[in-house]
Amino acid sequence: MKNCVILGDSKKFSRVINSVNGRIERGVLPGVTLRVMLNGECVLDYTAGYSNIEEKIPLRRDSVFRLASMTKPITAAAALWCAERGKLRLSDKISKYFPAFARSRVGKLDGRGKVAALGAAEREITVEDILTHSSGLGSGEVGDAQFASFPRAHVRTPREAVEHYGEWLLDFSPGTSQMYSPLAALDVVAAIVEKVTDTEYESFLRERIFLPLGMTDTGYNLTEEQYGRVVKLYPVSV
Fold it and tell me: DSSP secondary structure string, 136-175?
């Protein structure tokens, strides 16, 4: 199933389209949707494959994809929006908003795989540390071990999550290393945005980022109709 609109030179895109089609035909990818913008004009709008292979549901231009960790740059944009308006500073210590982080400690795994404290962190975590994955919060095996016992079913908002993170041991002292934080770090930023704007986080994103950009199908809680357009997840190797 293919749907293609080419407003530019088709020869320039033939290699890209052929490469995409080849991956779909070999079963490497279930489906792909592409859009190329040039000087504000759409020059390629291409959709092929399926959103659900087993049920033969074609991928559509309005299919809804899970953003996963691409929510992190959106959260970073929200923090920078607040910084531009003087609601926070990147140099702010996290403890300014959530006092539990003033007593952060570094930990390690002992021989039994249990988390043990090494001592106090060399300094406090800042907003910049969080945004650059330099905080040590949830950034390695210490964070993974603590997240294993995280009460997911009882946490519904960023602020509720941060109440738990404030007691976590860090994988390293802030600013001494850099390692990806899959969940905890950016949850803290979201909670800070809520606090400094006095707005529920999803509402803030919708009003200040998504709707101004025309992202009407983007959000944490979708309607029943939108869920009907969500693509099925498949393991892929590109």
Answer: -TT-SHHHHHHHTT--GGG--SHHHHHHHHTTPEESS-TT
Q: Write a three-state SS string for 85-116.
A: CCCCCCCCEHHHCCHHHHHCEEEEECCCCCEE
Distance between CA atoms of residues 208 and 52, nearest Å: 33
The amino acid at 9: D
CA distances (Å), 37 to each of 5, 7, 184, 232, in order?
12, 10, 34, 27
What token pair was written down for 74? Answer: 């959106």
pLDDT average, residue stretch 4-16: 69
Length of the chain in residues, anyone? 238
Q: Does 131 have pLDDT greater than 60?
A: yes
Burial class (CB in 10 A: 0-12, 13-18, 19+), 54: exposed
Element of type H or E holding 123: none
Q: What is the pLDDT of residues 140-156, one digit of tens each?
A: 999 999 988 887 767 77
How many Å separate Cα 198 from the centre of its chain? 22
Compute the Cα dihedral for 99, 146, 132, 215 and give only its sign. Answer: negative
Please state the separation of Cα 234 from the chain's center in Å: 19
